[in-house]
Amino acid sequence: MSFSKLRPVGSRVPLPTEGSAVLPAPWAEHYDSVFVNSGTAALSLAVKLSVNRKQAPHTPEVILPAYGCPDLVAAVVAQEARPVLVDLAEGRPWMNLKAVENAVTENTVGIIAAGFLGIPERLFALRWIADKNDVALIEDSAQVFPPFSCGNGVADYVILSFGRGKPINLMGGGALLIRKDHGERLALGSVSVLDAPPEVRLSASAAWRVRRWLFNLLLTPPLYGAMERMPLLGIGQTVFHPLGSIGRQSPVEGLLEAGIEGFNKRRDISAAYSEALVNLTGKGWAPLAVECFAESAREGLVASSPILLRYPLLAPSRQSRDKALLELNRAGIGASAFYGQALPAIEGAGEFVTVAASSFPCACDFADRLITLPTHEDVRNGDVESVADILLGRCY
């Protein structure tokens, strides 16, 4: 067993760019941005705007996938709205479109389209459903960069997260992107929804730089492996946490630009995985990203494959997945089951969802069979070869 271990996800925090011209954000043509203290806070603000945009007769409802981060639920309930879960399409990280249509009621105010590890949701199809029912479309792009809506403005609101394990890691914070044609709808009486939270401007102080150095140091394989063996840290666990405060928080000057620049220069290891693991399909495994991008391309939805946050595979069964996880982690590869369960089964989230996990068979099957492989900058070709040797060399 290896005590040194590749982390499952997470890029290093860059140093802020200094003395250079500010580059326009990739979303600047279609969206205005509001920076806040977390991606969950940004999503909750989008829910609040959706609630105010359409007055529901009773408790406002927001549609979201039955497999996803419990922070989705936290963001919705923080605005006293009700999360309405829908099942996934079979073998896909996307919501079942027919289920979305059937879930819409007179109380529905928004649909959350959550991107998955670099794979965008089917936003054009969801836009059609949203327009048909006069509800807001929220692209949760916490795991996808750049957001799908950057070049087309298809979503009303877009969410970015800059926490650990996200495409751009700024040690926290998030952004709410608001489509430019929605500016006139934001006022609530004389107080803007977006001006209400207090604003904090971060700086690259000595304390911040020490924190950055320590954070990046802990991402190295020897130290990450040591931390993971400390149960009290709870690394890798998925539990529900209520949303605390929502605050305006501007990133360190030049840090977001440095993060975007670093992301654009990042090596994409996904092609190496796809090539090395091509023979897995004959054993009943599904290269999820390859299949999703191919399906989207056939429908004319994406021209190219974005960089993946993790490399996702669907195993033939939960038993096969769990055996693979055990062997890969023994070898020092940070493979993960990701969330591990459908949303109603995640600790703490179930009390806000009135439907049992068994009501979402595709989401449960997806959770049972999903395995993710690291794609960050520390993954080398030799690591990909080790993964292939383990997965192809054993009969799962």
Automatic annotation (TrEMBL):
One of its GO terms (molecular function) is pyridoxal phosphate binding. Keywords: Pyridoxal phosphate. The keyword Cell inner membrane does not apply. GO terms for biological process: polysaccharide biosynthetic process. The keyword Isomerase does not apply. InterPro entries: DegT/StrS_aminotransferase, PyrdxlP-dep_Trfase, PyrdxlP-dep_Trfase_major, PyrdxlP-dep_Trfase_small. Belongs to the DegT/DnrJ/EryC1 family. PANTHER family: DTDP-4-AMINO-4,6-DIDEOXYGALACTOSE TRANSAMINASE (PTHR30244:SF34), TRANSAMINASE (PTHR30244). This is dTDP-4-amino-4,6-dideoxygalactose transaminase. It comes from Marinobacter antarcticus.
